[in-house]
Amino acid sequence: MRLTVFWQRMADHFGSGYADTFARDHVMAGLGGRTVHEALDSGWEAKDVWRVVCTTMNVPAEKR
């Protein structure tokens, strides 16, 4: 998954204004105690981060 697709999905689910705030502030156990930005910066693949976000935040199947 390209980062552009990842960020579009984040904006579609959380709203364009909140997606970045969520990605900077919400620490997730599934990302090893990292935020989305920290996980991506440390080398996690965007598709793997998206899967964790989906599981953690109960993103509906049709948006996954």
Task: Describe what this molecule looks like in 3D.
- This is DUF3046 domain-containing protein.
- InterPro entries: DUF3046.
- It holds the Pfam family DUF3046.
- It is a single chain.
- With 64 residues, the protein is mostly helical.
- Helices cover 61% and strands 0% of the residues.
- The protein has 4 helices and no strands.
- Helix 1 crosses helix 2 (16-25).
- It starts with a helix and ends in an 8-residue tail after the last helix.
- The mean pLDDT is 96.
User: Overall pLDDT, averaged?
Assistant: 96
Biggest β-sheet: count, sense, barrel? none
Shape: globular
Beta-strand content bin: under 5%
Task: Provide a quick synopsis of the model.
This is DUF3046 domain-containing protein. Helix content is about 60%, strand content about 0%. With about 60 residues, it is mainly alpha-helical.
Produce the secondary structure layout:
Blueprint: H1 3-14, H2 16-25, H3 36-41, H4 46-56
List keywords for this structure.
64 residues, mainly alpha, 4 helices, 0% strand, globular, DUF3046 domain-containing protein, DUF3046
